[in-house]
């Protein structure tokens, strides 16, 4: 049985696409660094090192958008793209998990 087909990504400019991809990469690295969820310092260290490169790519994508005159973010469209790319689950790893009562 095939998994359900994902909805198509909304039409994005190349810079918007790079912005969304870079943003999600930053989110993924922050999720790996999260001290409330991680288990090993080495993995958190590697994620922190990768975060620098991903933050640079995010900055560069936003710079391109700004230089092209894209002065506003189309939040509805970008949010739809984030949802299609599993952004809600990925971003949830950044939060502090609920306290577990024993």
Describe the structure.
- The protein has 102 residues and is mostly helical.
- The protein has helices at 14-33, 41-67, 75-84, 87-92.
- Helix 1 (14-33) runs antiparallel to helix 2.
- The longest helix has 27 residues, at 41-67.
- 10% of the residues are buried.
Structure summary, number of beta strands:
0
Topology as a string of helices (H) and strands (E): HHHH
Shape: globular
Give the overall pLDDT as a whole number. Answer: 93
Which sheet architecture does the biggest sheet show? none
Q: Which class do the helix and strand fractions yield?
A: mainly alpha
Rg of Cα set: 16 Å
Helix content: 55-70%
Amino-to-carboxy terminus distance: 40 Å
Write the topology of this structure.
Layout: H1 14-33, H2 41-67, H3 75-84, H4 87-92
Summarize the structure.
By secondary structure, the chain is mostly helical.
Keywords:
mainly alpha; 4 helices; 102 residues
